[in-house]
Design a protein that fits this description.
The complex is a heterodimer of chains A (318) and B (279). By secondary structure, chain A is of the alpha/beta class. In chain A, 50% of the residues lie in helices and 17% in strands. In chain A, strands 1, 2, 3, 4, 5, 6, 7 and 8 form an eight-stranded mixed sheet that branches. Chain B folds into two domains: 52 residues, no CATH class; 223 residues, 2-enoyl-CoA Hydratase, Chain A, domain 1, CATH 3.90.226. Chain B is 33% helix and 19% strand. The longest helix of chain B is centred in the middle third of the chain and has 20 residues. The chains are: A alpha/beta (318), B alpha/beta (279). The complex binds zinc ion. The site of zinc ion (ZN) has 8 residues of chain B, from loops.
Amino acid sequence: MAEKRAIELLETKIQELRELNKMEEIDMSSEIVLLEKKLDALKINTYSNLSDWERVKIARHPERPYALDYIDKAFADFYELHGDRISGDDRALLVGLAQLQGKPVVLLAQQKGHSTEENKQRYFGMPRPQGYRKAKRIMALAERFSFPLISLIDTPGAYPGLEAEEFNIGGAIANNLLAMAELQTPTIAVIIGEGGSGGALAVGVADRVLMLENATYSVISPEGASVVLWKDKGKTKQAANALNLTAEHLLKLEVIDEVIPEPLGGAHKDPQKTIASFKEVLTRHFTEVCDTPPEELLSARYKRYRSIGCYRTLSDHR
Amino acid sequence: MAIFKDKHYLRVKLDKETDESLWMQCKSCGELVFKRRVRENNNICPYCGEYFFLTARERIESLIDEGSFTDISKPIMAADPLLFQDTKPYSQRIEDAQEKTGLADAIIIGSVVISGIAVVVGVMDFRFIGGSMGSVMGEQICHGMEEAIRNQCPFILVSSSGGARIQEGILSLMQMAKTSVVRARLAEQRLPFISVMTYPTTAGVQASIASLGDVIIAEKGAMIGFAGRRVIKGTIAEELPPNYQTDSFALEHGSIDRVANREHLREELSNVLRFFVRQ
Ligand SMILES: [Zn+2]
């Protein structure tokens, strides 16, 4: 993309001028201001009309902040807990305790790897049954001690593999849906990157569902839809568009409650700023759900999910 | 949301005979068999025992006390909230499926009696867009469970579905959550939910309501699982056992309680219901 190259060039130029400004006695600040204005305009032009497919690519960007980046910066004292007590410890779905606004919370976090080695350990952020069972165990803990539950969602989907099927991945997901439906503690889910189908929803049934501006949430990946519906690997862009998988669409469909803004070009352009706006929006909802009586939360959660969907009523039933 | 023409469903005929020929060839053994004989035999090939698909209505008839069925489905049909179009517009796909099956969508909710026990059943029909779960199926399953609560009776769901209906995007995914919250209410009421998995019970349906039965019974020959053979082969080069995602695989690995032959399914249900319902 030519615009992206132009943005990079301008950024380098501004950086050079800044260096010059520091080193010598010449005042370059007016030039810098001018160039920065130009850069902003260019960025707005380039990034404000992103196609759904471009957002898919941003949601999957390897430099995008991952769950642990949010946990490090937006929460205090993360204390990780391990294992499902049955068969293992899944490294794609982390759980633990942390503090938010001085209150203990339980965190569920889908974590991708930054390197090939780390991705091998973390199965590219695709949880296995061990992960979902660990999550369910920790949900029970949250309920027992009335700790609010916060999930950070970022997964291409549940891990597709023989072992996962042997340990009944589908059943594990189903049981988490049920557990989250009845969980007697406040729950918030935030889609920070990829919301890959059942693998995402299995930690995503909540009182509040928030979503980063360039995150995606979908019943199937564009690649999957392209093959299943078009019988053609090449229709991913069309599929991305048809699936309505962006935050903007999901807000309109009333599946999510609020969109968390990202810097122009995506979260990876300025992780600090992204995490700051994440924290701002999250704490606002956190305060609200913590201030709501539990019975009220549960009945609102029930209504929210009971009414989800869109169909027509037949005026003349046979 | 979109504006809809309200004319289509009126043309839908009930129990439409879709093909005219009297004979069919078994795909498994190649024998030419008289169709009525197959139908009277629970859609099982009289020569080799191969199971053919049962429509939702045929399935219901095969499980219940004769004449006890009342259709209590909600009068609803699919909207097209995303104005979805792949190789065909979704609205057209729905219309075609309705023409083909005579059904409003891929599930029927019925009030029935099984061995003298009143039950609410939900039965999926694979012919209707692969039995996929969209907003209508999600709503009907919830409605079925709520009817069971209203009548204080058991709920039985017979699944035959490839998973969530892609054409309704995220709203289909959300039906997994929707059916779960109502399933929790059924549990609160201490009413039994028997899940019957038939060919196929996969992906979004297996990973939600179908796996949440108090008792899960698979029909022999069922396909049960989350990620299909193709997906696994595509992403991970893994050798899969020949019984991958079959009823025996699911039973062996503890995903289901029991397996029953089609001809014994009615008996199986009446046996299990007796533990929960005292007459
Ligand atoms: Zn045969």
